[in-house]
Every structure is written in C-alpha cells, then in structure tokens.
Amino acid sequence: MNTDNTPSASSSQRARIDWHEVKRRLEEARVATGHVTAPDAETTKRILETRALALGRKPASDERQGAQLEVVEFVLAEEHYAVESRQVRDVYPLEQLTPVPCTPAFVRGIVNLHGEIVSVIDLKRFFDLPDKGLTDLNKIIVLESASMCFGILADLIVGVHSVPVADIQASLPTLTGIREDYLKGVTPARLVILDAEALLADPNIVVHEQIAA
C-alpha cells in the first residue's frame, strides 16, 4: 500500500489536463457543427430566394388549370346553359315581340331595341327542347359578333360568373343531335356551355328581314 504523499499516475494525468484547451476545442467543434446545421444569414437568404423563384415558376399546365371562362348562365326548359360573356352585348326583358310570317318555327319574331330591329331565336325549339310557351319572365340575350347580331330567348337569367377552363368537359352522352353541334363544353355541375360563335356564324339561323317604315 502506498502511504507517501506522491500522487498516483491517474492523479498526475488528471492534474495535467488543460481544461481551458478542452473548452476551446469543444467550442470550435460546436461552431463547426453549427455551421453545417444552421447556415449564416447570407446563405439562408440565398436559399430562400432560390426556393421562392422555384415556387414562382408555375408550369404551363398549372396556368391553364387556373384559366377562367366568364359566362352568362341562363335556364332553358329547366336545364342550365351558358354562353361566353364576350359574345353577349346586352340582356333585355321580352317586350313587344312581333312575329314574322313564313319563317322557321324557332324564329319567334323581331323586337325593336332602342331603334334597332333584332331577330329573336327560340333555342328550345331550335334544340327540340320542351316548350311551355312565353311568359313575362322570359329574357332576350343579345349575341353579337363583328358581322352578326340576334337575340336568343331565356326562361331565366341566372347571372354572370367564371368557370374554370380545366373543369369544362367535351360533352355528355345525353347531349346529342343539334345541341352537340353548338356545344363548347359541359361542367361537372352539368352547365352546358354553348358555342355562341358557331350560333352567330350559322347562316341557317338568322333571318334577314326588311321592315317597312
């Protein structure tokens, strides 16, 4: 048994440890590790800017999905239809409709709209839909292109709103016959969007009538 005051080997090793040096090295290690897991302010800013640019670049498909089609929605024979608002000049109540002899059944007549004589087309007859006659609730939607103008009858005007282009389907199995020829698309809510340009361009629809003064 060692009874003198000479320190043991393990005690001498503990006595020689430079704790200041150990602390310095631990601090260096902490700083080095922190640099990896926590970038400095400039690096963080650069990373965030890169992420923002990447998020800001939307693919073309996403842009198309976000496109909207503004339409005027109306009711025909309890079904909902719409035409693009860019082809709609105005909407009027049905007043003073004058029948025109020797015209197809779908031509309801003509109206005088602020001095302009406009033919009125009944799409229910044109599309062979149930027809319960005219009432005071009927409205005239005036369609217009660069070379043509006429009105179409509506049982009720629902309003003007936007439809996502991505939601418009090509057709429905139930939309056959003449309606399919003037169809632009159908929404999941079964809103039938008509091709107003095709209607305006069809020479069989418009009746050119000269009115005696």
Q: Outline, from the CA principal axes? A: elongated
Distance between the termini: 140 Å
Give me the count of strands. Answer: 10
Average pLDDT taken over every residue: 76
| Spans where pLDDT lies below 50 across 5 or more residues | 6-15, 209-213
Describe the strand arrangement of the main beta sheet, using strand numbers. Answer: 8-1-2-10-9
Specify the oligomeric state. Answer: single chain
Helical content stands at: 25-40%
Q: Could you walk me through the main structural features you see in this protein, from its secondary elements to its overall organization?
A:
The structure is a single chain. By secondary structure, the chain is an alpha+beta fold. 30% of the residues lie in helices and 29% in strands. The chain is built from 7 helices and 10 strands. The protein is elongated. It starts with 8 loop residues before the first helix and ends in a 12-residue tail after the last helix. Mean pLDDT is 76; it is low at 6-15 and 209-213.
Comma- or semicolon-separated keywords:
213 residues; alpha+beta; 5-stranded mixed sheet; 10 strands; 30% helix; disordered C terminus
Which helices and strands occur, and which strands form pairs?
Elements: H1 9-16, H2 19-37, H3 41-56, H4 60-65, E1 68-76, E2 79-84, E3 88-93, E4 107-113, E5 116-121, H5 123-126, E6 139-144, E7 149-154, E8 156-164, H6 178-181, E9 183-186, E10 192-194, H7 196-201
Parallel strand pairs: 2-10, 5-7
Antiparallel strand pairs: 1-2, 1-8, 3-6, 4-5, 6-7, 9-10
